[in-house]
Amino acid sequence: MTSDIPGLSVGIQPTYQGWFADAAWDTLLICDEFGKPSAQIAEEWEYNEDKSAATITLRDDITFSDGSDLTTEDVQAAYEFAGENNARFADLTFDVVDDYNMTITWPQPTPTLDLILCEAQISSAEYYAGDEQDTTVVGSGPYIYEPSKSTQGSSYTLTKNPDYFDSDTYPYETLVLKVFTDATAGLNALKTGQIDGILGSAATIDEAKKSGLEAVTLRGTTTRLLITDHLGQSIPALGDVRVRQAMNMVFDRDSIANDLYRGYADPAYQIFRPGSSAYLEDLTEDPYPYDVEAAKALMAEAGYADGFTLQIPFFEGQNHDLLFPYVTEQLAQLNITVEQVNLTGPDAITELLSGTYPVPLWQLGNYGESLQDIKDYILPDGIWNVSHQPDETIDGLWQTILTGSDEERVAAQKEINQYVIDQAWFVPMAYPDGFYLYSSDISIPTMSDFSALHPLLRDFQKN
Fold first, then answer.
1. Please, are residues 198 and 180 in contact by the beta-carbon 8 Å criterion?
2. 443: which strand partners?
3. Using CB atoms within 10 A as the burial measure, which of 20, 240, 335, 340 is most buried?
4. Which residues on adjacent β-strands are paired with residue 31?
């Protein structure tokens, strides 16, 4: 892992490099690279007509690592726990028929129910009711956490669950997750056999290939600034669309792709993945061409020629080492002073998403299902729309998505995309190639990650 997990609690596990969660816990359904679900804990499921409710039947042979049987009581406890910090699980109601049959109802139609049922890891009801969530791991997944063989922040050891119902998918007897936040140290560890695989980047791919390592190329992110304070509540200048447009115009997207990503990227003019429903195929030219002087004129027209100060969080292990100084330099041409705020420790992700920093910089996923992008990055309650500000246009188009025909739903997604481009809610920069580097001792025949960011645990196989 190029960054540490924030802790042992099931409620704070990252999806990016989420191999610990994949190992220790199960979910109701499991989604493939296109977001299509198949059975996991739930062996049968169906939705009502407007996708506001899911009726599920659980497997009756699932046992947690503490010896208790998994039932609908545990599913309800898990989803209630998830709802405390995740809007996708908020305000649910539960109709529990028996230990293995239940209906979960959302407060409104939810077109991404497939993805939601693939998301929340499930522990036992006793675990959620207890006070040892930060120190214990109770799961039903393919591996069992071994705390005596682990050092938090450095290395996590898990051993195969002998009773797992799908054990053939996970051929390794022992899984060790090691943390290497430094890219050079991580690559050296791979070259010397200390690890079997690690995420790579444009900065490490050439050396990896020269060293005879294998590589999987991934195209699942759009590098971007997220300008979430559209109303200027925290930083008044950001409430003016001309300022947001000017911020777009000081970035040379071709140079970012060719120089910062060493040619392992394409310039990005929108945040959505090519081929997704929201993607605008005819957007072939940059709507905000690189023009520093025109950007300065916009700032002056808006009354902000003197600029302002902008705090942007920085994380190790996110391939921002070259990008962050460039962003700082380019925004400085508009007299926007970037203050780098280093976030570390178990509360780092929570702080990042708290709204304290209304303009995060991140290589965020662009999903195969663009509805998930809209939910995460654009809707007012989106986890990455950190300022959570309402917008009437977005609300109206989302209602069309909830109630319209298939054609109307696709058209509304494209309209949302065009609207956020016109309003400059983002500064998209590049579609970078990602890489997963691995030794020839292992095999990665499939790539199941819906986000296309890295192999999932089930993708790793023996040669």
1. yes
2. 461
3. 20
4. 37
Q: Which residues 6+ apart lie within 8 Å of 45 measured at CB?
A: 28, 29, 37, 39, 54, 55, 56, 57, 117
- The pair of structure tokens assigned to 374 is 């809209």
Q: Cβ–Cβ contacts within 10 Å for residue 81, how many?
A: 22
Identify the three-state secondary structure at position 409: helix
78 contacts: CB under 8 Å, gap ≥ 6: 10, 120, 121, 122, 123, 128
Place of tokens 């669950």: 161
Cβ–Cβ under 8 Å, residues 322 and 267: no
Beta carbons of 282 and 266 less than 8 angstroms apart:
no
For the record, the structure tokens of 381 come out as 């309650």
Distance, in Å, from the CA atom of 368 to the CA atom of 63, rounded to the nearest integer, reads: 33
CA 295/CA 2 separation, integer angstroms: 36
- 10 Å CB burial of residue 338 (0-12, 13-18, 19+) is buried
Burial of 315 (0-12, 13-18, 19+ CB in 10 A): buried
- Structure tokens belonging to residue 82: 């998830």
Q: What is the largest CA-CA distance in the chain?
A: 67
Using CA atoms, how far apart are residues 182 and 345, in angstroms rounded to an integer?
A: 16
Taking each continuous run of H as one helix and of E as one strand, the counts in the chain are 14, 20
Rounded Cα–Cα distance for residues 94 and 76 (Å): 7
- Chain centroid, CA 397 distance in Å: 24
Residue 313 φ then ψ, to 5°: -70, 150
- Residue 438 C-alpha from the chain's centroid: 22
State if pTM tops 0.85: no
Which tens digit of pLDDT belongs to each residue from 350-374? Answer: 899 999 999 999 988 888 889 999 9
For residue 267, give both structure tokens.
């310039």
pLDDT tens-digit profile of 326-339? 999 999 999 999 99
pLDDT tens digits along 396-429 = 999 999 888 889 999 999 999 999 999 999 999 9
- Given a contact cutoff of 8 angstroms between Cβ atoms, the answer to whether 19 and 459 are in contact is no
How many other C-beta atoms are found inside a 10 Å radius of the C-beta of residue 86?
A: 16
Between CA 104 and CA 82 the distance in angstroms is 14
In angstroms, the CA 397 to CA 400 distance is 5
Phi, psi of 88 (to 5 degrees): -65, -20
* Burial class (CB within 10 angstroms; exposed 0-12, middle 13-18, buried 19+) of 92: middle
Any idea what DSSP says for residue 376?
I
- What end-to-end distance do the CA atoms of the chain give, in Å? 22
In the numeric block, which tokens belong to residue 57?
A: 């039947």
Q: Are 210 and 203 in contact (CB under 8 A)?
A: no
